[in-house]
Amino acid sequence: MRIALFEPDIPQNTGNIFRLGACLGIEIDIIEPTGYVFDDKRFRRSSMDYIKYIKYKRHLDWDNFFNWSENNNYRIVLFTTKSQKKYTDYSFQENDILLFGRESAGVPKYVHQSVNEQLTIPMVKGLRSINVSSSVAIVAGEACRQLNSL
């Protein structure tokens, strides 16, 4: 299993997700462009020294990432507020890439149309969304539980 971030804009969230990935043994994919310089000091501060424990791959753009994932037999699972399918009703697999959208805009329509599955984290009606690093933690915890990976 892997975690992918589509064009992340907030370095602190990316750093927190890197730290989570390091602690859970999950590799991270960054789909560029990012909304910040990748070695931003805010990113380094939030990831702390955990960055040396994480395996990550940077992809030039969506097409590069998508082709790489297909060539390596991954399933792309998008987490979005636009789905009615709950993440808790999904059976995670080792070859899943858990994809999370940009903090400011989610993902464009062509990404929605390209993925294997779209899931949501249920939340109180009328609210926009859960912070991306919190969303990653919620879903990664459930996926690890299902896969007995810890």
Determine the mean pLDDT. Answer: 93
In the residues, how many domains can be counted?
A: 1
SSE arrangement, N to C = EHEHEHEEHEH
H/I helix tally: 5
Provide the spatial order of strands within the biggest beta sheet: 3-2-1-5-4-6
- Number of beta strands: 6
User: Helix content range of the residues, please?
Assistant: 25-40%
CATH class: Alpha Beta
Please describe the biggest sheet, giving its number of strands, its sense, and whether it closes into a barrel: 6 strands, parallel
Question: What is the strand content?
Answer: 15-25%
Label the overall shape.
globular
CATH superfamily: SPOUT methyltransferase, trefoil knot domain
The CATH architecture designation is: 3-Layer(aba) Sandwich
Amino-to-carboxy terminus distance? 12 Å
Q: Low-confidence parts lasting 5 or more residues at pLDDT below 50?
A: none
What Rg, in angstroms, do the CA atoms define?
A: 14 Å
- Structural class by helix and strand composition: alpha/beta
CATH topology value: Alpha/beta knot
Describe this structure in words.
The protein is of the alpha/beta class and 150 residues long. It has a single domain (2-147), classed as SPOUT methyltransferase, trefoil knot domain (Alpha/beta knot, 3-Layer(aba) Sandwich), CATH 3.40.1280.10. 35% of the residues lie in helices and 18% in strands. It has five helices and six strands; from the N terminus they run βαβαβαββαβα. The protein has helices spanning 11-24, 41-47, 62-71, 109-114, 132-147, and strands at residues 2-6, 27-31, 56-59, 75-79, 96-100, 117-119. Strands 3-2-1-5-4-6 form a six-stranded parallel sheet, sandwiched between helices. The chain is globular and about 35 Å long. The model has no long low-confidence stretch (mean pLDDT 93).
